Amino acid sequence: VPAHIGYRKGVPMGGDLAASDGKAPNFMVYALRDPIGANLDRIQIVKGWMDAEGDLHEKVYDVVWSGDRQPGADGKLPSVGNTVDEEAATWSNSIGAAELATIWTDPDFDPGEKAFYYARILEIPTPRWVLYDKLRFGIELPEDALTIHQERAYTSPIWYSP
Predict the structure, then answer these.
(1) Integer Cα distance of 60 and 82 in angstroms
(2) Which residues pair with 159 in a beta bridge?
(3) Segments of 6-132 assigned E as strands
(4) CA-based nearest residue to 109, from 158, 69, 74
(5) What distance in Å separates the CA atoms of residue 76 and residue 61, rounded to the nearest whole number?
(6) Are 39 and 95 in contact (CB under 8 A)?
(7) Helices (H), the chain
(8) Cβ distance 125 to 83 under 8 Å?
(9) Is the pTM of this model over 0.70?
(10) Which of 18, 72, 136, 151 is buried deepest, with most CB atoms within 10 A?
(11) Three-class secondary structure of residue 63 per DSSP
């Protein structure tokens, strides 16, 4: 079971990561979709750090994703796609994955900088609540109303101090 391994060998969410001879930390991330929810698009690690001048920075890493997509030349991962039927306010789990897991190592680790890391899990696109209201109540939505979104889940951060 991934959680047992993580607690036995690592630092749980919300914990402090001890310095380890300057080696970049490894993170085990695992997500399982909600049984009645949408499939998963990707897992991202969000890293924040403070440089020597005291400036704060943040970077988002796509660490594991569904399908056979590959990041483009710009490093961005293409969209998972969209199965939302806006007229019926439904979607299909024909894209995405039921679960995602990987081990990720910070490629930009600097053992002298304070940092934090947390995981962000994105589902495939689904209808927003306003689309359900439109269908249920027969109302018209403003032209600029957002009708599709991607639900997200976040972990507590893991903190690193030199």
Answers:
(1) 22
(2) 16, 116
(3) 16-17, 26-32, 40-50, 56-65, 99-105, 114-123, 126-127
(4) 158
(5) 9
(6) yes
(7) 2-9, 129-137
(8) yes
(9) yes
(10) 151
(11) strand
Two structure tokens written together for 60: 């988002």
pLDDT digits (tens, 9 = 90+) for 91-115: 999 999 999 999 999 999 999 899 9
* Distances from the Cα of 44 to the Cα of 100, 104, 140, 153, angstroms: 11, 10, 36, 10
Q: Token match 């499939």: residue?
A: 39
Separation of alpha carbons 72 and 58, rounded Å: 21
- Which residues are registered as beta bridge partners of 109? none
Amino acid at site 128? R
- Cα–Cα distance list, 87 to 7, 37, 132, 133 (Å): 46, 19, 10, 12
Place of tokens 């027969």: 138
The amino acid occupying position 93 is: N
Selection from 24, 13, 23 nearest residue 157 by Cα: 13
Beta-carbon contacts of 48 under 8 Å, excluding residues fewer than 6 positions away, are: 56, 57, 58, 115, 116, 117
Give ∠ CA 71-98-136 in degrees, rounded to 5: 105
